[in-house]
Amino acid sequence: MINPAHTVQMLDNLEATLQPWPGAYTALMLAALVLAAALANWVTKRVLVRGLRRLLSRLPGADSGPGSHVMRVISRLSNVVPSQVIAWGIVMVPDLPVALTTLIVNLCVAWAVLTLALAFSHALDAANAIYDRRPDARNKPIKGYLQVAKILIFFAAGLVIVAKLLGVHVGPLVTGLGAATAVLMLIFQDTILSLVASVQISGDGRVRLGDWIEMPSQNADGDVIDIALHTITVQNWDKTITTIPTKKLVTESFKNWRGMQESGGRRIKRALYLDQHSVAFLDETSRAALGQFSLLDEYLRGKDDELAQWNARLREQGLAEVNSRRVTNLGTFRAYIERYLGSHPGINTDMTLMVRQLEPTTEGLPLEIYCFTRSTAWAVYEGVQSDIFDHLLAIMPLFGLRVFQASSDAMLMDARERLQR
Question: Using one digit for the tens of pLDDT, what is the confidence trace for 250-263?
């Protein structure tokens, strides 16, 4: 065991031996101090940190990689050891100016405070990583709160470091900063607004990780991939990245498609614009042709019975035939679409399903299809929607109906070319 008295006697003898060479003993002590700090750093990094890494690797589910948050905390804390060795040993070096010794000690303390602040920051990252493993982490992220905690930690560390370097106490420094509160509020106004917005967003769950949001004012239309204190990151469908200030989600309107995704159905709301000149009553030939459709058989038979009873009452009253009711091709086509959608495997019949006429326009008579698909996946939804309208456009002429569209001059040009030939 090392005897302190014997060690002091050895140092005194060494100082007496080197007395003919001024500054030699001081330089030797400084070299020994640097060597001791380097040795402490080597022992801490190579022995302690590696030992803890091996210990963590044996624990089930522990992340012991060099880049893991836990190891980064340990690595940061290990940097305190050599600085404290220097702070402890520098006071033992003789013939150094008092101001220089005080400055070195204060720098070591400042380094230790900064290192501890960084270690706490990595510890908060580790806490966030552990929290993200919870099933409900996507609904209530804590990343914004942890970022506020980091700001407070670094702010406190900055005060301690400045106080140490200036040689003053932290209390008077904080009191002096009280006069600059208005300036600080101005500087950190975005942070304060973002914090309030983060609390509201986390509280009411208006935005969660993985949500599809649409915000045209910010050119955002895609999935939320990150929720931080100041910004929310959205990966658009074209794979570009848009960052939205968090406070914008409180002050401006946006659309969240989560309700659609959770409902199990995605809405189809599209209209066919029909030429109103093609709307007509069904004659016997057309009635017989459409009666061959299995989807219309029951509908037409029901209509026949209903109209027969109505028209029979008209004849009993002696009214003219013009007052009788007849089946139209448009009404029959609308009934066909309803039954076709009801039997389609891609349509969710438990949700709203209807086919309705909208107000006629100069572009024709809108016949709107309003229903929901069973799948909310984009590609599947578009496929089902396209298949439905492909079929309706192809079968519409069998009902004697035409689509209204602006004509091009292609037919006129073809006619002119034929005349020129």
Answer: 888 888 888 887 78
From the list 219, 258, 257, the residue with the least C-alpha distance to 238 is 219
Quote the DSSP letter at residue 281. B
* CB 401 within 8 Å of CB 275: yes
* Residue the block writes with tokens 């009801």: 342
The rounded distance, in Å, linking the Cα atoms of 275 and 399 is 13
Cα–Cα distance, 269 to 369 (Å, whole number)? 6
Report the alpha-carbon distance of residue 84 to residue 112 in Å, rounded: 8
pLDDT at 26: 64
Q: How far apart are CA 338 and CA 354, in angstroms?
A: 7
Task: Output b/e per residue, 183-197; b: 16+ Cβ within 10 A.
Answer: eeeeeeeeeebbbeb
Antiparallel, parallel or unpaired: β 231-236 and 241-245: antiparallel
Q: How far apart are CA 212 and CA 205, in angstroms?
A: 13
Residues of the chain short of pLDDT 50, as ranges, are: 1-3, 6, 61, 64, 66
Query: Residue 231, SS3?
Result: strand
Collect all residues with Cβ–Cβ distance below 8 Å to 349 and sequence separation of at least 6: 342
Residues 6+ apart with CB under 8 A from 360: 276, 366
pLDDT digits (tens, 9 = 90+) for 358-416: 999 988 999 999 999 998 888 999 999 999 999 999 999 999 999 998 766 555 556 56
Which two structure tokens, joined as six digits, stand for 344?
Answer: 């389609």
Beta-carbon contacts of residue 131 (< 8 Å; ≥ 6 apart): 137, 142
Single-letter code of the amino acid located at 139: N
